[in-house]
Amino acid sequence: MNGHTHDSLASEESVGLLVDDPSQSDSILDNPILQTQPFSVATWASKLLSPVFYLRTTHWRVLIVRLAWFFVPSFLQGRSMREQIRPAKLGPTAYLDGMRGIAALFVFHCHYSYSTFAIANGWGFNGGHYEILRLPFIKLFYAGPAAVCVFFVISGYALSYRPIKNIRSGNVKDFSTGLSSMVFRRAIRLFLPTTISTFMVVCLIRMGVFEWTREFAMNPKYLRKVREVHPKMLATAHEQWVQWANAIFGGFKVFSWEHYGGFRIYDAHLWTIPVEFRCSLYLFLVILGTARLRTQYRFLTLAVVTYVTYYNSRWEFLLFISGMALVEWDHIRGAHVPPPVLPSGEREKESKPADSTAKVISWNLVAVLGLYFLGQPDSGGSKTPGWVYLTSLIPEWWAHEGFRYWQGFGAVVFVLGVGHSVWWQRVFNSSIAQYFGKISYALYLMHGPVLKVIGMHWMKWAWGVTGVEGEWYTAGFFLGACFCIPAVIWCADIFWRAVDIPSVKFARWFENKLIKTD
Fold it and tell me: In terms of CB atoms within 10 Å, which end of the chain has fewer, N or C?
């Protein structure tokens, strides 16, 4: 092979074309547009990875790191976030936040448990049910209805705290401004996070995520008791969104005296939100109507309102009104007034005398008594040891949900006892209780969807490991809980920071944009 032939073949190979005329080949090679470089893995890899390199620039790297860090649970994010969860100096009613957080956790335990076990009956019901987890006090760890009663008392207390304080101090301007602000922001506070959570549910439905666990959710082999409605994907997205919008607007039917409002189609647990809103408006009306009365006449009027509410079996309104009464009593006795700061030489002489041991023990026992009443069985109280006589005392005209009778009474007694007990307040002021207090609303909104989307995968896996025969069914239940509980808490933590906190800020910002300036 001569040199010319060798050069031509080299040209053909380099250009990728077969040409007959060597001079034409040379002209093509001389064209800079058609020249190509030899294939290089490094060159092509750099082109393919160029978006990645772009994301590694300072601006994008910071955003990615921040986003990744946002998904880290708040209690693992360092000292500043931990101080936000539990400040070094807590407010005088911070223990109520902790109590609400623990109650929210117990509601979640209830909804995790009642699909697998008959949890409504108490210990010894009808000559059986002698499991240790049904014993009084222990049963409260998964007593959802009792926890809801505690919610409502705390809500009544929290909403009444500042208005009653302003009434008693004669601060008319702050009272009117504060009450007006609370009425305006209450709907946003309750319904904006709920709207967003159910919006997320609809998005997941349209993506088919709920279909992944539908078969398991309807399978009596695994879920042997209460099987909640699993949200369905409708034929078209338009139908789905219309149904969702109707559910949202159904939550505002607060004057119909319905026991349950909207939202239940997409989260069965959200029936309490319209009830909370209705009770809040009822409470604001009572506060406004009694604001100018002297203390004794305000209590007398409140007693009449309480009796009328009680006679109509409106347990939810009773709990809110009871919260208002507890606030007034605490203001009268100066429960939330910090002691004056005295010179060091006068501190011992002027210090407030400590409560007697008998008084301390008495109030602790009052709180324990409240816990016992909170343990009223949801079903079968007339056949349950320790509840036969108490159940017989429930009036016949108490038409709806008889189990709320003593549970509601217990919630009021428990909050009353804790308000007088330093020991109980320390329990609810602990870091763990305060953390659950911060995420309590997010935990309530998130636990249902997360259980259906993520939790049921873990439950199915757990029973796949243990089996479902005999005691292995219980073992699988607890094994699944080891994964479901952290998943729900993690998602609630994210929702708290991403939705709940911004919702509160938005409500205040929106009000400030609309209010009339002096």
Answer: C
Assigned token pair, 310: 């009680």
Q: What DSSP designation does 410 have? A: H
415, 420, 423, 436: which is closest to 155 by C-alpha?
415
- Quote the CA–CA distance of 486 and 397 in Å, as a whole number: 43
Q: How far apart (Å, rounded) are the C-alpha atoms in residues 150 and 103?
A: 7
> How far from 465 is each of 452, 468, 475, 478, CA to CA, in Å?
20, 9, 10, 12
- Pick the closest to residue 442 from 275, 76, 192 (CA basis): 192
Classify the C-alpha dihedral 212-218-224-226 as positive or negative. positive
Per-residue 3-state assignment (H helix, E strand, C coil) for 291-355: CCCCHHHHHHHHHHHHHHHHHCCCHHHHHHHHHHHHHHHHHHCCCCCCCCCCCHHHHHHHCCCCC
pTM: 0.84
**Best CA proximity match to 425, nearest among 322, 295, 330:** 330
Could you tell me if 166 and 175 are in contact, meaning their C-beta atoms sit under 8 angstroms apart? yes
Spatial separation of the C-alpha atoms in residues 281 and 254, rounded to whole Å: 9
Residue 202 has pLDDT above 80, yes or no: yes
- Tokens 């989307």 locate to 453
**């009021």: which residue's tokens?**
412
Distance in angstroms (rounded) separating the CA atoms of residues 121 and 473: 20
Using 50, 70 and 90 to split pLDDT, how confident is the model at 22? very low
CA distance 435 to 425: 15
Which tokens belong to 482? 């080891």
Distance CA 41, CA 19 (A): 28
What does residue 18 show for φ and ψ, rounded to 5 degrees? -100, 115
Angstrom distance (rounded) from CA 328 to CA 413:
15
Q: Tally Cβ neighbours within 10 Å of residue 153.
A: 29
Cβ distance 379 to 388 under 8 Å?
Answer: no
Q: Give the list of residues 6+ apart from residue 42 with CB closer than 8 angstroms, or none.
A: none
Q: According to the model, what pLDDT value does residue 109 have? A: 96
Q: Which of 175-179, 246-250, 302-306, 330-334 has the lowest mean pLDDT?
A: 246-250
Helix ranges (H only) for 135-236 are 144-169, 172-206, 214-217
DSSP 86: S
Q: Which residues contact 261 (CB under 8 A, 6 or more apart)?
A: 250, 251, 252, 253, 254, 271, 273, 274, 275, 278
Question: Mean pLDDT of all residues in the chain?
Answer: 86
Residue 148 to residues 37, 202, 216, 271, 279: CA-CA distances in angstroms? 73, 26, 28, 11, 13
Contact assessment for residue 455 and residue 487, using Cβ atoms and an 8 Å cutoff: yes
Q: Report pLDDT for 90.
A: 85
Question: Which 3 state secondary structure label does DSSP give 378?
Answer: coil
